């Protein structure tokens, strides 16, 4: 078993393709179940954001796992695998661990250093764990990736430029003009909507509206951010009253298809995948439309020194994870060796009991204690050494050697050594 990441992101595809693969929250259980139904997939979690969809899976083989995951993603997009293949990327073994850590650290984000991805990865793991499709390997990978992401943000200055996607889009759209004094409308009451309200408030926007298909959610979100809830049916009129619109809904269709003919300059930030705003809206002379495609080429970047330090942290943490993984591989074999030793001692004690009938219960107990102590002492140093050696490159050979020397059974479900590339 090994870790495989298969994904599609802002780096490999335009929004038109991304929005066909992106999952709405309610679709995640079905997709995870579909992944686990594939012959080579043993564990899975899916990270789906406005600019990436990635499947993290534990698979029985690289090629089989890649085919399985690619099939599910293609089904989701409604295309043949061959049509999607050029837009997919894959990381396997050690490379998959490195990719997970870089994503969590914000190094692979559209806005380098942004920290929103940490929450999105945490949500992806939580959902997979609750559905019972993330096992030991993905649990460890997810927990370590989240820790590494936090460490990078704490020990480097990467988030000085690591704005949220909302901040980057707002800066790009305003082009230096202050946001203070403007009136803004946020469409959507999910995580991105909450982030948009917080970002706008920090930017000095005090006249804030929020609208959502479920009115109760809009009221709740507005109350927590000092905003006013507005009925979604009032959207056409609201577009003529505000200066900024941030649209981040989970709607499968377009939310804004037109704007009033006579409006003041209007900045629309379409941060949804699929698009919330029809492209024709940008033809209105008073509208400035910033979407994910536009943001991709205009986002902020972190300083080279901060990025280099972050990459160094990631590399060291990857090495530590690989060492842990190699060491964990030998654990079932060591346990099997100790079990075999206990079986031998038990058999010998039974044989001794049938012959030495004159021994008292106390004497029998002392003999048993001594025999167990001798065996444990004999095994202690070799098992400590084999764990140490197993954590080194090529360490899987030590577990193999133990099994061969002592005729131990093969572990039933051991992930296997992490590799740098395909099998």
UniProtKB/TrEMBL annotation:
Residues 310-408 form the Tetrapyrrole biosynthesis glutamyl-tRNA reductase dimerisation domain. InterPro entries: 4pyrrol_synth_GluRdtase, 4pyrrol_synth_GluRdtase_dimer, 4pyrrol_synth_GluRdtase_N, GluRdtase_CS, GluRdtase_dimer_dom_sf, GluRdtase_N_sf, NAD(P)-bd_dom_sf, Shikm_DH/Glu-tRNA_Rdtase. One of its GO terms (molecular function) is glutamyl-tRNA reductase activity. HAMAP family: Glu_tRNA_reductase. Residues 6-156 form the Glutamyl-tRNA reductase N-terminal domain. The record marks 99 as: Important for activity. Its EC number is 1.2.1.70. The active site is at residue 50. Possesses an unusual extended V-shaped dimeric structure with each monomer consisting of three distinct domains arranged along a curved 'spinal' alpha-helix. The N-terminal catalytic domain specifically recognizes the glutamate moiety of the substrate. The second domain is the NADPH-binding domain, and the third C-terminal domain is responsible for dimerization. Catalyzes the NADPH-dependent reduction of glutamyl-tRNA(Glu) to glutamate 1-semialdehyde (GSA). This is Glutamyl-tRNA reductase. Homodimer. Belongs to the glutamyl-tRNA reductase family. It comes from Virgisporangium ochraceum. The gene is hemA. Substrate binds at residues 49-52, 109, 114-116, 120. It is an enzyme of class 1 (oxidoreductase).
């Amino acid at each position: 078993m090994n870790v495989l990441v298969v994904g599609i992101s802002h780096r490999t595809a335009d929004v038109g393709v991304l929005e066909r693969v992106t999952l709405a929250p309610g679709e995640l259980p079905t997709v995870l179940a579909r992944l686990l139904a594939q012959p080579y997939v043993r564990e899975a979690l899916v990270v789906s954001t406005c600019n990436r969809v990635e499947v993290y899976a534990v698979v029985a083989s690289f090629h089989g796992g890649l085919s399985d995951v690619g099939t599910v993603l293609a089904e989701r997009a409604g295309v043949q695998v061959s049509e999607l293949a050029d837009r997919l990327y894959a990381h396997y073994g050690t490379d998959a661990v490195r990719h997970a850590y870089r994503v969590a650290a914000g190094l692979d984000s559209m806005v380098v250093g942004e920290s929103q991805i940490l929450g999105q990865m945490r949500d992806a793991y939580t959902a997979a764990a609750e559905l019972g499709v993330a096992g030991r390997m993905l649990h460890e990978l997810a927990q370590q990736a989240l820790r590494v992401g936090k460490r990078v943000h704490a020990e480097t200055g990467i988030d000085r430029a690591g704005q949220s996607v909302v901040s980057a889009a707002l800066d790009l759209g305003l082009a230096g003009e202050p946001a203070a004094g403007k009136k803004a409308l946020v469409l959507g009451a999910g995580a991105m909507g909450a982030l948009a309200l917080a970002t706008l408030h920090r930017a000095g926007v005090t006249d804030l509206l929020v609208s959502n298909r479920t009115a109760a959610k809009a009221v709740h979100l507005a109350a927590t951010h000092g905003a006013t809830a507005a009925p979604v049916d009032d959207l056409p009129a609201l577009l003529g009253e505000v200066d900024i619109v941030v649209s981040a809904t989970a709607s499968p269709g377009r939310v804004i298809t037109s704007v009033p003919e006579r409006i003041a300059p209007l900045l629309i930030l379409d941060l949804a995948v699929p698009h919330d705003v029809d492209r024709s809206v940008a033809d209105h002379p008073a509208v400035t439309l910033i979407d994910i495609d536009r943001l991709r080429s205009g986002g902020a970047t972190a300083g080279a020194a901060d990025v280099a330090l972050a990459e160094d942290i990631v590399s060291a943490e990857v090495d530590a994870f690989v060492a842990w993984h190699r060491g964990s591989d030998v654990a079932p074999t060591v346990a099997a060796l100790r079990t075999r030793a206990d079986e031998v001692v038990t058999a010998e004690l039974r044989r001794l009991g049938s012959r030495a009938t004159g021994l008292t219960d106390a004497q029998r107990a002392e003999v048993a204690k001594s025999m167990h102590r001798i065996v444990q002492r004999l095994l202690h140093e070799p098992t400590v050494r084999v764990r140490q050696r197993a954590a080194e490159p090529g360490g899987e050979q030590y577990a193999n050697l133990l099994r061969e020397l002592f005729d131990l059974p093969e572990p039933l479900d051991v992930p296997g050594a992490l590799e740098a590339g395909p099998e």
